[in-house]
Write the structure tokens for this entry.
Amino acid sequence: MVDIVDKSTRSRMMSGIRGRTTKMEVLVRKSLWRRGFRYRIPKDRNYLGLPRIPDLVFPKHRERLASSVHTAL
């Protein structure tokens, strides 16, 4: 895949993206856990053959959540 922006612009864009455990994500996880939703946080690059790593996986319900909480705020 060819990138549509130059290297310096891509570097600036990527430097603004924080890690996986932002304050908002931790709040969402704690809220879900308190409400009885049990989840796993996958670490594998190729989790279940998905193109990206989901943020949360709910094994009991066979669902996954790929949120963009860190980009929404």
